[in-house]
Amino acid sequence: GRKRLWETRWQIHFKATPRNRLFFGIELAEYVPVAGWARWIQQSTVALLRKAAGGNIYHSCGDSPANAAQSGSEAEKPVFAMPLWAFDQVIESEIGQEPDIQNIEGLGVLRANGRKNFMKHMSQLELRTDRVYTFAFWSISRWVDVVNWRMLGVVPGGVNFNVLCGRPPVHIVIYQLDDARETQEKRHLQSRKRYYFNWAVWSTKMPPAQQHIREMLPQVLETDLVVAEDTDPDWCCWRR
């Protein structure tokens, strides 16, 4: 099959039923001006990701905070957001019967077994508080080399991810998008988002500056952040 550089998995038990549609995707920490060659790289990369994940993708370069402050409006963060049917696998389980998240091969419904049927299943999926949902995603991984912090597939050898994201980390997010106060507002503004998951991701080859780590985790000492024991080289995580 196609090369899979990485896979992310979630196991979620909703405490309250989501009122509006959920999105998942990539959100940048801050606005990044993109022009010229970098703009071409961005457009080409987004086109590749759209092809892999499917249509109905929301992508925005975001708004300049300085311009938003001058106009008295809210700035949108840069985001690449997908509907839930862009996942590659979903398993719905009774509470207490959910699978071991490290062993879900062949379980549930997979997009690879029929994209049209998978999209229909996901569009009809009722997210309930008496179920546990296991999601897996890997379709764009062959173009996103997280370890080496490079975007692949657009230019030979790839391009440093910072050309597109400015700096690490990037945020893997799942959020509910609330209705806008004004019907013409289509942006995914922070005031409209209700996060279910917000994971700051970076590579040890391209770590954030200590200042940015302290901003994300002001209550945690650097010595309290350690990598979990490498009991399985195919899995990684952080613990406190």
Walkthrough of the structure:
The protein is built from five helices and 14 strands. By secondary structure, the protein is an alpha+beta fold. The protein has a five-stranded antiparallel beta sheet with strand order 3-4-2-11-12, with no helix packed on it. It is globular. The two termini are 37 Å apart.
Strand order of the largest sheet: 3-4-2-11-12
Shape: globular
- Relative strand content: 25-35%
In whole angstroms, the N-to-C terminal distance is 37 Å
Unreliable runs: none
Helix content: 10-25%
Total strands: the figure is: 14
Q: What does the largest sheet look like?
A: 5 strands, antiparallel
Keywords:
240 residues; alpha+beta; 5 helices; 14 strands; 26% strand
Quick gist of this model?
This protein is of the alpha+beta class and 240 residues long. It has five helices and 14 strands.
Q: Secondary-structure map with pairings?
A:
Elements: E1 8-12, E2 22-28, H1 36-53, E3 58-60, H2 65-71, E4 79-83, E5 89-94, E6 109-110, H3 115-123, E7 131-137, E8 144-145, E9 150-151, E10 159-160, H4 162-165, E11 170-177, E12 193-201, H5 210-216, E13 226-227, E14 238-239
Antiparallel strand pairs: 1-7, 2-4, 2-11, 3-4, 5-6, 5-7, 8-9, 9-10, 11-12, 13-14
